[in-house]
Design a protein that fits this description.
Blueprint: E1 4-7, E2 10-13, E3 16-18, E4 21-25, E5 31-36, H1 40-44, E6 46-49, E7 54-55
Parallel strand pairs: 1-6, 2-7
Antiparallel strand pairs: 1-4, 2-3, 4-5
């Protein structure tokens, strides 16, 4: 599959939102890079216009509350 470019989005990075970057995806759909939106690599890719929408990282909730009828802080080491 060809390289794809996600353009025209508000991309959330560590330092806030950016409107002037393109997200390049490789053939497997993995992020291959963040580049200025006008870069030639973007124009050569299969371009997907996100129409000003937000592009956010996958948020993962790593909080664990236990299971099997016990809270995580109540189990002994063998029960965890």
């Amino acid at each position: 599959m060809a390289t794809r470019a996600l353009v025209n989005a508000r991309v959330l990075l560590d330092d806030g939102f950016h409107d002037d970057v393109a997200v390049l995806l490789d053939g497997a759909g993995d992020i291959a890079g963040l580049v200025p939106a006008g870069q030639a690599r973007v124009q050569a890719a299969e371009v997907h216009d996100l129409a000003g929408g937000w592009l956010l990282p996958g948020f993962i909730d790593v909080q664990v509350n236990g299971g099997g009828g016990q809270a995580g802080d109540q189990a002994d080491d063998g029960g965890v």
